[in-house]
Every structure is written in structure tokens, then in C-alpha cells.
TrEMBL record, chain A:
Residues 98-307 form the ABC transmembrane type-1 domain. Coiled coil: none annotated. Its main location: membrane. It comes from the Bacteria. CDD domains: TM_PBP2. Keywords: Cell membrane, Membrane, Transmembrane, Transmembrane helix, Transport. InterPro entries: BPD_transp_1_N (IPR045621), MetI-like (IPR000515), MetI-like_sf (IPR035906). Belongs to the binding-protein-dependent transport system permease family. Pfam families: BPD_transp_1 (PF00528), BPD_transp_1_N (PF19300). The keyword Ion transport does not apply. It is found in: Cell membrane. This is ABC transporter permease. It is a multi-pass membrane protein.
From TrEMBL, chain C:
The keyword NAD does not apply. InterPro entries: AAA+_ATPase, ABC_transp_ATP-bind, ABC_transporter-like_ATP-bd, ABC_transporter-like_CS, Oligopep_ABC_C, P-loop_NTPase. Keywords: ATP-binding, Nucleotide-binding, Transport. This is ABC transporter ATP-binding protein. Belongs to the ABC transporter superfamily. It comes from Azospirillum oleiclasticum. The keyword ATP-binding applies. PROSITE patterns: ABC_TRANSPORTER_1, ABC_TRANSPORTER_2. It is a peripheral membrane protein. GO terms for molecular function: ATP binding.
Length: 318, 536, 706
């Protein structure tokens, strides 16, 4: 197991180098100039000399190869450079925002797990009864409703029904947990619903599959209580594919927060991502891509490790 | 219903060329003056974008002005209640020499920076020299507007003298620019880039904090040189996406958004919040324009460009689009209602502004035939922002269809749209103009040869227009200047490198608690918040 | 089901509940019924309600099990034998499966009406069950120990330490060494045979009175099967546990069962002691079954006896005798369902003519099949169509060792194998799972590239053939797979499936010719041409295998690799396919490489036989020579382990199953690969890989003791 983790961790470096190279060149292919946008974006007649000066200041006039070398050497020293827009270190800009996004993502995951496992289990156990139908309708609705739209509905609903809106500025959970949660719970719910829907469906079908397995029949033949059969013999096996789904969805969630953060005005990396892409802030986009890549890899590793914990077959293979 | 009626009336007023600005503003001022300002409270307002850095001289976006303006004093400013009248900010009084080449300003005594140091003529000189002749590594976005300045002198600590090389009709107005923040000469001497990362001015509010992506705060500067001001304890600018603003206004989380809302959002907030909000409306110092790529066939032929401009029924557009968008008044190259703008009578004589659209379209088709252009199919490069770009673009396409021109709508993300235009990689494009004041020297830049004015993306080269521009800038006699501007406008509309589509309407929604704020045609002006107070 | 048990709860079930209350961990003397039966099933009816209709899976079944005896239920797939036993456990699939009538008296209580909570208490404690698939019947994520201890916790309320001690004891009882350590291991660390031992341990955990084993050895190799059955038989007699064994393997029944119930189409058609049923079958179905099985203990017939036709659809079964349609002895009376006829000696049969058969006994002319004990002469000339020399296939795997270590391991799936196949003959290739027989087939089909050695087909070396030559050669070598269902694309019609290679290789000029050829092929394999419009799922297993054969024949091959072509089929169908293969061989001059694990089938069809073990050839000989005088200890063990459907023969045989398990191919024994299980193994066996020794012309065996 240890060697497995070591091996996986070792794979992170080459993967990230690949991501770094790819994203550097792919961004440079995109047309558009951050300097023009920055200075002429509001229609002001800024002269060409000024534009050139700013370009030079940001180092955008250097040849591509030298920019690439700067980027890669920067990476080697864990320096993601400075934002072309704000001139602040990319790490700092991301650092102030990433925790909020991660918190929303984790809360959404917790919500999804808390909803999906019981609902999926109920749905499977009461297959083709009204309970199952209700759960399935709820789950399908979750897949059909885009989270940003649900987010907008949530906001409108709060506004119209309670004449209340969550505070607009996020604070740290450790600073003021109640205020923090009163803000972040809504985007977490909006995103978590879809997430839960995916996981619920997986939980249901997975448990249904597992309940058809021979070892469930064996457990019944042993005279075990139904509850014990479902919990000990059913759930643990059924959870394996659900964990994969949760892991994959978590990684996508970070990407999916882009729109939801806009709707709820959450100052997270999703919003930053949109802004950075819109502005052509290469260094910022590069930094964010690296971050998402790292999260993606770590989540996948976590999923694999969890698999190992739950499934002895994987454990011994590794 | 009431809103629609009101908008309709406003649009109608604008089209008749009356000074609706003054009218609306006058009413608002009368109401505001009736009450005694209350001290205290924090104003929370939304800003839909965020400034990249803190240097007034280098920035161009309203997203900068709204949070930063309260921290700085200017030499002059526009009188918010009587725009475009200019009034003093740091300057207590000023005189202009008869030849119009020497401007002498007396500063308010006892002006202090937030760090307690005194603000003197030296600081004004240092700040303007930084704008006029920026040191290496400093961006001065409006350097060109001060190219007439020969020197800035400080005969005594309370006096600043600007000497010009030649007459500049816009000079005084340019000194009232909200971008020309006065910095501390000492700080600049130590580091010319000091303002990029620090906010240290003499304005009504001290810098509190800026949390990237989240908010910006300011606290009352007790040493502000105008006694009793500001009224507010502080302000809080919250950065949010425009989609979140409407909800936040309706939910009372922010008390204002100063740029302006689209009619639909304005109505939603008004319907949702009822009498908790006030709506201010005025023609906006911004217009949607159509740019032809004069370097590309068939737009190298003025007949073709003019034909396409002729096909657009601006008068009908005005009534139709004002209901659904921020587009509204018909105007030439200057904002209708501005003293130097064309009157309706003058306007209707220009190509593309006649009221007989059938005649105009017949003429357009004749022109196309003459030019040997048939079955024209072109791309319209547009910005993928619904309000008002898409709406305007769709309208234009429909109009051109009626003279047999097929247009493909190519809607690009802002950055790509900008890049398509500046690289000349387009047939025709929707662009916009807008600045902090109506002065022709600023507002005509979109119509000058690309060589001297890179923001004209048509690639045009028209020495006559450039000459007329230079002449009007040097003409201090208002009547003569107006004549030159008219001549410029006629030539520009005939050549039609760039033509106006419609001007915009500005609707600002505030909480009824917000008092003392004056509506102006520009969302860059009057944002120092010194006069603003909260009823509760 | 639910409604029924509710009704029961308010009525008769009460008394049962009173009786069943709490019981001491050690069972009391069993509560037998009047006839002295522990389990007494009477007139049981079970229906499955499906969307297409009601399947009457069990239709009036009655049988008894007395304490300590082993009762077999025999029948082909779909006859209801498994459903009968699941019904006893009340483990029918919900909500489709329903008991609609009858009673199941067990230990003084009626299990049909017993409330579910009491039924649950009974399961695993008084009645235990072992299932067919040891690979999937254990929960993969839980340790073996916990899975054995579960019934101890639930039924006997043992504490952890006691339960663990008991679990260890049970593992030792079922013959798993190193029990203490094994308790914490997971199922995937056990072989199939070991897992089935664990299943038995679970079954025995609470000292049940009855153990039901549903096809307990079907998924296992013949040598392991013998070990497991010996173990069960031994435990049954030592612990006095009554057993119900459900199987389709008549050999097993003959060897181990005390009494036999033969089921057909949801009913028991014959019942009696094993000796009675095997030596004096009184139902035509039983007679047919016994004759259809290829026998190891009797001279081979030219053709296998087959029971033509298919079992009836249980959704709409015939009102009369359900076997009548396929019966050679059918008379007019068969339109009425026959009563059960007692022919004496506790032997009953549900046949109108049972008494007649009894009276005629062995003299009845229709009962005797005219046997052709002389094998048909076959061409025997030295004209090898396929020549395999020194063929090896090694798979290189990497295995992790320690924290950062990796080691390369080589699995020698096929190791230095040489043999030839003569034109027009059938070469049988036998061995247990993991012996490399399938890999060998794939090598010949060139689905794998050999590591070394040569394969010559029709005088050309497959290894050096150019791509275009290979294209031509591929047509000449075809394959028939084991699983006729998964090897046919479910989204294509039978016609499309057979036509596919014809169009790919452009063997026919146009679509019409293709259609005609498909029709011709279908009739060649005994199917109706109109079946070309059908989809695979609409066909029975036997018909699907015929389609597989037709597809192979489409290419006009000269060699067909048959990879376990009949092992998934029922006995009666198996005979039909084997006969078909033989007919086709005769008509079309085909050559077969027949890969199988069933010694009797291989014996029947092959002219020569190759025996493989762990990638190596153990013995090659002519069929009669091999079965009459097996030389290699492994061949001997294989033959000894395979039970034959004859009570007299089986009871007379000493039971000496081959001990141990197949070694891991990752770490094969040095020298002779068989030495770890070989009764004759000596030190020398570990030192040298035994070369093949030619004992007699054409008879080679790789053993240094010969």
C-alpha cells in the first residue's frame, strides 16, 4: 500500500509538468491581448506607446520561448508568477480564494453523501414502490436542473419568501462559522443537489446490483437480520462505485463552481477563473489550471486509497 | 407601466433635443437640498468589476473610479448639480489669461493628505508632471490629452500655473478629469510607482482595506479640507457579478450600484423593493457605434459605408429599443443634449439621420449599385454582451437586410472582440464610445484617423477630419468651435468610417436612504461621495 | 408471499411460533414426522410472476429427507431443482417468486407458513445451504473469519472469542490448514476449492440438521470436486447431518447419494434409492439421461444417445405428461398426467408405463438400445494437418515486492508443447482449469503470438506467414466457443451473424448468394433456415451452439478449434451437439482440436488425447489406450476422480481423490510440475523436467517413473 501511494505521488510530478507545458502553449494560441483590454476596455483613447510600455512592463514582449522558460523555472521553485491583471503574485490571489471554493466543494460533497447514501439505499430497498419513484424523480430532477439555475431559484426563493438574502461577503469559517455557513450553505446546496442526484442514482443501481449478488443470498441463508445484510454485506460493496462517482464529481465540481460562484457572488477560484480567462490573464489561468490539476490528482488518489480501505482485493493487488 | 411611460417620455424629450439632463438633475437637486444631511453610517455599494491596481493615472475603468475616487482630491471637478459646469476641488479659484495659454490656480489652504502631511502646489505639479511626462515604467493613460502643456509652475505653495504651447479648448475640462488624482510629491519622489500599490490621497475617505475579489472599504478622513464633509462614516464597495447586483439591490444588501442597470433589471428591483428604492435616469454619455473596416473591400469605398449607414432607421430604433434596452436617444458624434451637439434639425440633414427612411434606403441601394456591389454578404463582429451590444447588433442586421445586405452575426467574448478589431480582422464591428465628459476633443477620437487615434479601428486615414479636429481643439470661441465640430460631424457621417447607432440611457437604482448623490451623464463623475449621506 | 405470511401469522403459524421460541445452542433430537422424515415436502407449487407471464417453476413436488441421509435432486437446467431447495430456505427472489401451494414440514414445523422472523432464525441454524458459485458466494470485502462467525453471533449469541475459536475449529474441520491465520484473510486470497470449503464451514457453523448443497461442485475442477464431495459425505456421516444435494451430474449421484429424486419440468418424475434408480430406471426420462451421458466405464458407442426436443415452456406446460413430447415410449394415455406409480422397493415413477417397464424389467425390447460397440473405422494415415513443436507462451508480469521493489515474473501458460493433429481426426485436449489448454487454442488461432516454438498448418509455418497468407490461413482455421450466448452479438440476427464472415472475406458474389449460403449452413447444423431472422436470445442454448458451428463452417475450414463446446449445455443437448460435430466431420472431412475438461466427452469424440497440466503436456495417447492404460499419475488421478453414473461401479471404487490444489502459475514447482500433488513423487521429481517417454507407439507420457 505504501509503495502504491509513493508510486502515485511520484506520478504527480510528470503529470503536472505535462499540464504546465500544455496549458502554457494552449493559452498562447488564444487571441486577445490583456493590455488592450486593461487600458482600452472602457473605450478610452489610449495611445499605442502606452500600450507598448505596459506590454513591456508585463514582459509580454519577450519571445515565447523565454516566457516559457520563465514559467517552467518559476514552477520549479513553486513560483506561479504574478497576475498580468493585478500584478500581485498568483499564489496570493489564489490563496485568498481557494479555501472558500474548497469549503463549498466539501460541503456539497457532504450534502451529496448525506443525501445520496440513505436515499439511494431506500430507493433500492423499496424498488418499484412509491418511495423509489419519489427518490428517482428527485434524482432525475437533480440531473436535469443546472446548478446555476437552481442557485438562481434559491436566491429568488429566499428573497421572495423570506425577504432575506445570504450576506454578500464571505468570512472565514473559523472567524464566524454561523455567518460563513449562512452564506456558503446555499451554493453548496445548489451544487450538492446535482451531485447528490448523480450519487443517489449510482447508489441505487449499485446496491440493486449488489443485492442480486450471490453473497447476499449466502448472508440470507445464514439467517442474518435483513438490516445486517444490507448494511454489512450490501452497503460496503455498493459504496465502491459510488465513491468513484463522488470522486470524479468532486473534481468536476471545482470546475463547475465557475458558474455557481458567479450566481452567489462567492469570491472563490471559480469566479477568479472566469475573470482571468475573460481578461486573458495567462499567468493566473496557468496557476489555476495547475491548482485544479493538483486537486484532481489528489482526489483521484484519495478515491483509490479509499477503495483500498474498502476493498481488500485492491489492497493486496497494490 | 409607470416606468415604461416615464422611459418613453424621456426618450421623446431626448429626441427633441431638449436639455433633459438639466431637467432631471434639477429636480433631484431640489429634492436633496430640502433636507439637512445626517452624519454617520456606511454606504455599501456594488461594483461589477474590480480595479487591477490603485493608480488613477494608469486606469481607465469605472470599476476603478467607484472605489478609488472617494480617496482623492482633484484640482477641478464637474459641478454635479450643474454638469458640465466646472467647479474647484483643490482649487479655490482660478484665472485664465486672455490668450488662453496661461491658467493660474489658487489652492485651498490647509489641505492635508491622509498621512497628515500638507498638500501644496508642489504635489499638484508632481502629479500632473507624472501624467504629462510619466517616468519609465509608469503608465499614463491620458498623457495625450495634455500634449498642449508647456510647463507646470508653482510660484508659491498655494499657486499652480499651467502654461500651454497653444490654445486648447478642452484644457480646463481635462483638469476636472476624475482620473487626475493628486498624489503626494514626496511619495512620488521616493517611488514613482507608489500609487500603484498604495492609496494615499487627500479625499474625503481614507483607505480601509481591499480584499481581492471581495470588497474595498474607506473610512471618513477627519482631516478633509471641506468642513463638515464627508457625512458618511465610511463606504464599502462590494465587487460582484452583474447578475448578483439586482438581487443584492432588491434584498437591500447593497444600497447602490452607480454604473447603471438595464431596464429589465431596474424594473425588477423597483417592483421587488417598491418604495425602498429610488431610480435616477438620464441620457448616458456613451453610444453604440458601427465601425467599417475601411481597409477591406468593399468598405474601402465610402459609398458602400454610407449606404449601410443610410439603411439604419435610427429614429425608429430609438423608440423600439429604448423599451427593452439601455439604448435610447438618436445622436451624432456628440451626446444629444450637450451644448456642442447637433440639434435635431442639423442632425436630420446628415446621411443616416433623415426621417424618411424609404428615401434613405433608395439612396443606399443606388449607392451600392454605383459602387458595383450586389448581394453583399458580410460579418458583423460584435461583443457577446447582451446589453446593449447583441440587441444593437441584431437591429443593425435587420436594417441592412432591408437593402439586401446579408450579415452574419459574429459574437465574440470581450477579449476576442477587442483583438479582432485592433488587428483589423473583421468586416464591420459594433463598438462603443464613452468618456467622463462630453468635450469634443475626447469624444471625437473614435472618428479620427487610426494613425493618430488607435481606438478608431476602421483603419481610416482622413487628413481633413484630423485637421478639423485639431482646429476645434484650438478654438476657444464656443460658437466657432461648434461650427467646426458640425463640419467634422458632417464629413464623418458622409465618409462613414465609423457611424453612431444610438446613444444610451443611464438608470441608477439607489436605496431611498441614500441622499445627496447627483446623477450625471457620466458614470465616472461625482463619485467622491463627499456629499452623500444616509437617511438611516 | 407477504399476504400469505400475514394470514398465517393470525392463524396456524402461532403454534409453530410457540414451539420455536428460544432454543439451546445444541440441537435437540430432531422432531420427525410420522414417516420418520426430517424434511417432508408435500405437493409444493412455486410460481414466478414475470412480465411475460407466470412461470410454474415447481408444480406439485413431494419428497422426504430422513436424518443423516444424503438425498439427491437431479435434473437438467430449468427443471426446478434449485427453486425447490431455495423454497425450503424461503429464499425465493422477491417479489417474483411465490409459494402458491403445498407444505414443507421441517422438524415439526411448516416452513411455508412460518412467520419470517422465525424462518430467519431457522436459516443457518437448522438448515444451511451451500451454493454453486464459490467464487461469488462469499462477500469479497469481509474477512473469511467474520463470514463464518456471523451465524454464530446471530443464532448462538456467542461472544467474539468463542466464535473465533469455533470458526477456527470449523476451518480445520473442512480441511483448511493454518486456520488461525486464514480467518483474517479475504475470499480473493482463496482458490475456488478453498472457498467452497469455507462455504461448507459456514453451513456447518451452527450444527444444522439439514444441509442443502445446490450444485456444490459444478464450478470446480474434477479433482477438487472429488475432494469437496468426499468431505461433504464424510461430514454428513460423522456429524449426522441430513443432506440434499442438487446436481445435474449423474456420476456424483451414483457415488454419493442414498436416495435420488429425478426432476423434469417442475415435477419429480422418479424417486428411489440410488441403486434402484440407476440400475432399474422406470421413467423414460431417467433412462434417456443415463444413456445420453458419455461413459468412461463402458465402451463408447458410435453415436451418443440423445433425447430429442426441448423441455416444455413452464409458462404454459402441457396438461399431460410433460415428457411425452420427447418420449420414445409415448402412448395415447400420456395426454393425461400420470399418477405416481410405486414399483416397489421404495421406488416410484410418474409414468403410465412404469409398471409395464417393471414387469418387463430388463427384457423390454424398447429399453435396449442397439449398441454399436465397434468404433467406426476412421482414416488413419500419417498426414498431419497441424504440427505443433516446442510451443511456448510466456506472459511477463510485474509484481510488486516491498516498498519500492518490483519483480518480473513469468507465467508459463504453455511450456514446450509438441503434438500433431492428423487430417480428419479429432484430437482431444484435456486438463483442469489453468492447465493452458485455452491459451494453446488461442495460439493456434493466432490470437496470441507464441514465445517460442512453431505451429505448422497444412505444411506452412504460421509464424512466418505473410499477412496475406495469414488471411487465407485464418479462413481455414475456425473456432467454436464455450459460451454460445456471449460469443454471439445480441444485436445481430442469426442470419447476420453467420453472413458476417462471408461478406468480410467476400466469399459469395452477392447478397442473394450469401442468403442461400446462410440457409444451407443453417440446415447443415440442423436449424431451420427461417431462424436466420431470429436473435440469439430467442434461441435455446443448444440452438445457439449450432449457430456458433454454422458460423465456423461458413468459412469452409479444414480445422476447427472447439473450445469447451458442450460444457455449458445440458446432458441431453450435449449429446445432440457432439453427434452433430461428428456428422459434420464425416461429411465435410473436418479436423477438430477438441478442448474440454470432461474426460468422458473427450473420450467419446477424440481419436487421440493430449493431457495437460500447468502448461505442460503430461501424456499423449490414442483414446482407447489412454483410458484403458493411463500411464501418467495425473491422468490416472483424473480418471479416478471423475465419477461415473453407475452405482455399482462407484460404490466399488475406493475413494482416493487427488490431494492439494493446483500450484500458483506464478510460482510453479521445479522439475515435474505435477510433483506437489503426485502420489508417486520422489526427490528426483523436483530436479528434472521429465522428458516425454514413448511407452508404446503413439503413447507418450512425461514422467520419470515410467
Amino acid at each position: 500500500m505504501l509503495s502504491y501511494i509513493a508510486h502515485r505521488l511520484g506520478m504527480i510530478v510528470p503529470t503536472l509538468i505535462g499540464v504546465a507545458v500544455l496549458c502554457f502553449f494552449m493559452l498562447r494560441i488564444m487571441p486577445g491581448d490583456i493590455v488592450e483590454l486593461k487600458l482600452r476596455g472602457d473605450g478610452v483613447a489610449v495611445t499605442e506607446e502606452v500600450i507598448q510600455q505596459e506590454r513591456a512592463r508585463l514582459g509580454l514582449d519577450k519571445p515565447l520561448a523565454s516566457q516559457f522558460v520563465d514559467w517552467m523555472t518559476g514552477l520549479a521553485t513553486l513560483d506561479l508568477g504574478r497576475s498580468l491583471w493585478t500584478d500581485k503574485p498568483v499564489v496570493e490571489e489564489i490563496g485568498t480564494r481557494v479555501w472558500v471554493s474548497l469549503q463549498v466543494a466539501f460541503m456539497a460533497t457532504i450534502i451529496a453523501v448525506l443525501i445520496a447514501i440513505p436515499l439511494g439505499t431506500l430507493s433500492a430497498l423499496y424498488k418499484d414502490t412509491w418511495i423509489d419513484y419519489v427518490v428517482r424523480v428527485v434524482a432525475i430532477a437533480g440531473l436535469a436542473v443546472p446548478s446555476f439555475w437552481l442557485g438562481m431559484l434559491v436566491i429568488m426563493g429566499l428573497l421572495l419568501l423570506f425577504r432575506w438574502l445570504p450576506p454578500i461577503e464571505t468570512v472565514s469559517f473559523f472567524h464566524d462559522p454561523i455567518r460563513n455557513l449562512s452564506i456558503l450553505i446555499w451554493p453548496a446546496l445548489a451544487v450538492g443537489y446535482r451531485y447528490a442526484a448523480v450519487a443517489t442514482r449510482m447508489m441505487r443501481s449499485s446496491l440493486l446490483e449488489v443485492l442480486k449478488e450471490d453473497y447476499i443470498r449466502t448472508a440470507r441463508a445464514k439467517g442474518l437480520y435483513e438490516r445486517l445484510i444490507v448494511v454489512r454485506h450490501g452497503l460496503r460493496n455498493a459504496l465502491l462505485p459510488v465513491i468513484t462517482v463522488i470522486g470524479v464529481e468532486f473534481a468536476f465540481l471545482i470546475g463547475g463552481l465557475v458558474v455557481t460562484e458567479q450566481v452567489f457572488n462567492i469570491n472563490g477560484i471559480g469566479k477568479l477563473f472566469v475573470q482571468a480567462v475573460g481578461r486573458g490573464d495567462f499567468t493566473m489561468v496557468q496557476g489555476l489550471v495547475m491548482l485544479v490539476a493538483v486537486i484532481f490528482i489528489l482526489v483521484n488518489l484519495a478515491v483509490d486509497l479509499l477503495y483500498g480501505v474498502l476493498d481488500p482485493r485492491i489492497r493486496s493487488k497494490a | 407601466m409607470g416606468i415604461l411611460h416615464r422611459t418613453g417620455r424621456l426618450a421623446a424629450l431626448a429626441t427633441t433635443g431638449l436639455a433633459t439632463t438639466a431637467l432631471t438633475l434639477g429636480l433631484a437637486t431640489a429634492a436633496g437640498a430640502a433636507e439637512t444631511p445626517r452624519r454617520g453610517g456606511t454606504l455599501t455599494f456594488a461594483v461589477t468589476a474590480e480595479p487591477p491596481n490603485y493608480d488613477c493615472h494608469a486606469n481607465t475603468s469605472f470599476a476603478f473610479i467607484h472605489p478609488v475616487a472617494p480617496h482623492y482630491s482633484l484640482l477641478l471637478k464637474f459641478d454635479p448639480a450643474n454638469y458640465p459646469k466646472i467647479t474647484g476641488d483643490l482649487a479655490e479659484s482660478w484665472t485664465v489669461s486672455d490668450d488662453g495659454l496661461t491658467f493660474t490656480f489658487k489652492l485651498h489652504p490647509n489641505v492635508k493628505f491622509h498621512d497628515g502631511s500638507a498638500l501644496t502646489a508642489r504635489d499638484v505639479k508632481a502629479s500632473y508632471e507624472r501624467i504629462i511626462n510619466p517616468p519609465k515604467g509608469v503608465v499614463s493613460a491620458r498623457q495625450a490629452t495634455f500634449d498642449a502643456v508647456a510647463s507646470v509652475e508653482t510660484p508659491d505653495p498655494q499657486t499652480v500655473v499651467f502654461k500651454l504651447k497653444g490654445a486648447d479648448a478642452s484644457f480646463l475640462a481635462n483638469l476636472a478629469s476624475p482620473w487626475n488624482c493628486v498624489y503626494s510629491a514626496d511619495k512620488l519622489a521616493a517611488d514613482p510607482k507608489f500609487p500603484e500599490k498604495n492609496v494615499m490621497g487627500s479625499g474625503p475617505f481614507k483607505f480601509g482595506e481591499h480584499v481581492s475579489g471581495s470588497h474595498w472599504t474607506g473610512q471618513r478622513f477627519d482631516g478633509y479640507f471641506r468642513q463638515g464633509e464627508p457625512y458618511l462614516d465610511g463606504f464599502r464597495a462590494v465587487f460582484m457579478s452583474s447578475s448578483a447586483v439586482t438581487n443584492a439591490l432588491q434584498g437591500g444588501q447593497v444600497q447602490a450600484e452607480f454604473r447603471g442597470l438595464a431596464p429589465a433589471d431596474r424594473d425588477r428591483v423597483k417592483n421587488g423593493a417598491g418604495d425602498k428604492v429610488q431610480v435616477h435616469e438620464a441620457p448616458w454619455l456613451a453610444s453604440l457605434i458601427l465601425v467599417f473596416n475601411a481597409k477591406k473591400k468593399p468598405f474601402d469605398d465610402p459609398r458602400v459605408r454610407r449606404a449601410l449607414s443610410l439603411a439604419i432607421d435610427r429614429w425608429q430604433a430609438s423608440t423600439a429599443l429604448a423599451k427593452i434596452s439601455i439604448l435610447g436617444p438618436v445622436g451624432g458624434i456628440l451626446r444629444p443634449g450637450y451644448e456642442l451637439a447637433a440639434s435635431e434639425a442639423e442632425l436630420t440633414k446628415m446621411p443616416g439621420f433623415g426621417k424618411d427612411i424609404k428615401a434613405a434606403r433608395d439612396e443606399a441601394m443606388l449607392l451600392l449599385r454605383e459602387a458595383g456591389v450586389t448581394g453583399l454578404t458580410v460579418n458583423l463582429t460584435n461583443r457577446n454582451v447582451n446589453m446593449p451590444y447583441t440587441i444593437g447588433g441584431v437591429y443593425v442586421i435587420d436594417q441592412l437586410r432591408q437593402i439586401g445586405v446579408t450579415v452574419k452575426h459574429e459574437q465574440l467574448e470581450t477579449k476576442l472582440w477587442q483583438s479582432a478589431m485592433s488587428s483589423g480582422n473583421y468586416d464591420m464591428a459594433i463598438d462603443f464610445t464613452g468618456d467622463f465628459m462630453d468635450d469634443p476633443s475626447l469624444n471625437l477620437t473614435k472618428y479620427l484617423s487610426t494613425e493618430i487615434s488607435p481606438v478608431n479601428y476602421s483603419g481610416q486615414a482622413d487628413p481633413l477630419l484630423d485637421k478639423l479636429y485639431a482646429q476645434q481643439r484650438g478654438e476657444t470661441d464656443k460658437a466657432k468651435r461648434a461650427q467646426l465640430v458640425r463640419e467634422f460631424e458632417r464629413r464623418a457621417m458622409e465618409q462613414a468610417y465609423v457611424v453612431p447607432i444610438l446613444w444610451w440611457n443611464r438608470s441608477v437604482v439607489l436605496s431611498t436612504d441614500v441622499k445627496g448623490w447627483e446623477m450625471t451623464p457620466s458614470h465616472y463623475l461625482n463619485q467622491d461621495l463627499a456629499d452623500v449621506w444616509l437617511a438611516k | 408471499m407477504r399476504a400469505q405470511s400475514d394470514a398465517v401469522r393470525s392463524g396456524a403459524g402461532r403454534s409453530g411460533a410457540g414451539q420455536g421460541g428460544t432454543r439451546a445452542p445444541t440441537p435437540n433430537a430432531p422432531n420427525l414426522d410420522a414417516a420418520g422424515a426430517l424434511l417432508s415436502v408435500r405437493d409444493l407449487h412455486v410460481h414466478f410472476v414475470t412480465s411475460r407471464g407466470v412461470v410454474k417453476a415447481v408444480d406439485g413436488v413431494s419428497y422426504d429427507v430422513k436424518p443423516g441421509e444424503m438425498v439427491a435432486i437431479v435434473g437438467e437446467s430449468g427443471c426446478g431443482k434449485s427453486v425447490t431447495s431455495l423454497t425450503v430456505m424461503r429464499l425465493l427472489a422477491k417479489p417474483a417468486g411465490r409459494i402458491v401451494g403445498g407444505s414443507i414440514q421441517f422438524d415439526g414445523r411448516d416452513l411455508v407458513t412460518l412467520p419470517e422472523p422465525e424462518m430467519r432464525e431457522l436459516r443457518g441454524r437448522d438448515v444451511a445451504m451451500i451454493f454453486q458459485e464459490p467464487m461469488t458466494s462469499l462477500n469479497p470485502v469481509l474477512p473469511i473469519g467474520l463470514q463464518i462467525m456471523e451465524p454464530l453471533f446471530v443464532h448462538l449469541k456467542m461472544d467474539k472469542a468463542t466464535a473465533r475459536a469455533r470458526a477456527r475449529e470449523l476451518l480445520e474441520l473442512v480441511g483448511i490448514p493454518d486456520a488461525e491465520r486464514r480467518l483474517d484473510m479475504h475470499p480473493h486470497e482463496f482458490s475456488g476449492g478453498m472457498r467452497q470449503r469455507v462455504m461448507i464451514a459456514i453451513g456447518l457453523a451452527c450444527n444444522p440438521k439439514l444441509l442443502i448443497a445446490d450444485e456444490p461442485t459444478t464450478a470446480l475442477d474434477v479433482t477438487i470436486q472429488a475432494q469437496i464431495l468426499e468431505l461433504m459425505k464424510d461430514l454428513s456421516s460423522r456429524l449426522g447431518i441430513a443432506m440434499v444435494v442438487i446436481t445435474h451430474n449423474l456420476g456424483i449421484v451414483a457415488r454419493y447419494a442414498d436416495r435420488v429424486n429425478v426432476m423434469y419440468a417442475g415435477r419429480i418424475v422418479e424417486h428411489g434409492t440410488a441403486e434402484e434408480v440407476f440400475s432399474r430406471p422406470r421413467h423414460p426420462y431417467t433412462m434417456g439421461l443415463l444413456r445420453a451421458v458419455p461413459r468412461l466405464d463402458k465402451p463408447r458407442d458410435a453415436r451418443l444417445y440423445t433425447i430429442e426436443g426441448m423441455p416444455p415452456n413452464l409458462m404454459n406446460p402441457p396438461t399431460g405428461c410433460r415428457f411425452a413430447e420427447r418420449c420414445e415410449h409415448r402412448i395415447d394415455a400420456c395426454v393425461q398426467y400420470p399418477a405416481v406409480v410405486d414399483v416397489g422397493r421404495g421406488h416410484t415413477a410418474a409414468c403410465h408405463r412404469a409398471a409395464e417397464f417393471e414387469a418387463a424389467d430388463r427384457g423390454h425390447p424398447n429399453l435396449r438400445l442397439v449398441r454399436n460397440d465397434q468404433p467406426t473405422p476412421r482414416p488413419h494415415h500419417d498426414d498431419p494437418i497441424l504440427n505443433v513443436a516446442g510451443l511456448s507462451k510466456h506472459f511477463h508480469l510485474s509484481r510488486r515486492t516491498g516498498l519500492f521493489g518490483r519483480e518480473k515474473v513469468v507465467v508459463k501458460a504453455v511450456d514446450d508443447v509438441s503434438f500433431n493433429v492428423q487430417r480428419g481426426e479429432t484430437l482431444g485436449l484435456v486438463g483442469e482449469s489453468g492447465c493452458g489448454k485455452t491459451t494453446l487454442g488461442r495460439l493456434i488461432l493466432r490470437l496470441e503470438d507464441p514465445t517460442s516454438g512453431s505451429i505448422q498448418f497444412d505444411g506452412r509455418d504460421l509464424g512466418s506467414a505473410t499477412p496475406s497468407e495469414m488471411r487465407a490461413l485464418r479462413q481455414k482455421i475456425q473456432v467454436i466457443f464455450q459460451d454460445p450466448f456471449s460469443s454471439l452479438n445480441p444485436r445481430m440476427t442469426i442470419g447476420q451473424i453467420i453472413a458476417e464472415p462471408l461478406s468480410v472475406y467476400r466469399l459469395e458474389p452477392n447478397a442473394r448468394a450469401v442468403r442461400d449460403r446462410v440457409a444451407e449452413l443453417l440446415s447443415q447444423v440442423g436449424l431451420h433456415p427461417y431462424m436466420s431472422e431470429r436473435y440469439p436470445h430467442e434461441l435455446s442454448g443448444g440452438q445457439r451452439q449450432r449457430v456458433g458451428i454454422a458460423r465456423a463452417l461458413a468459412m469452409k475450414p479444414s480445422l476447427i478449434v472447439c473450445d469447451e463446446p458442450v460444457s455449458a449445455l445440458d446432458v441431453s443437448i450435449q449429446g445432440q451437439i457432439i453427434n452433430l460435430l461428428e456428422d459434420l466431420q464425416e461429411r465435410l472431412g473436418l479436423t477438430y482440436l477438441f478442448i474440454a475438461h470432461d474426460l468422458a466427452v473427450v473420450r467419446h469424440i477424440s481419436r487421440r488425447v493430449v493431457v495437460m497440466y500447468l502448461g505442460r503436456v503430461m501424456e499423449i495417447a490414442d483414446r482407447d489406450e489412454l483410458y484403458a492404460h493411463p500411464a501418467h499419475p495425473y491422468t490416472q488421478a483424473l480418471l479416478a476422480a471423475a465419477p461415473v453414473p453407475d452405482v455399482v461401479v462407484e460404490r466399488a471404487r475406493a475413494s482416493r481423490p487427488l490431494q492439494g490444489e493446483l500450484p500458483s502459475p506464478l510460482n510453479p514447482p521445479s522439475g515435474c510440475v505435477f510433483r506437489t500433488r503426485c502420489p508417486k513423487a520422489t526427490k528426483a521429481c523436483a530436479e528434472v523436467v521429465p522428458p516425454p517417454v514413448e511407452l508404446r507407439p503413439g503413447h507418450l507420457a512425461a514422467c520419470i517413473h515410467l
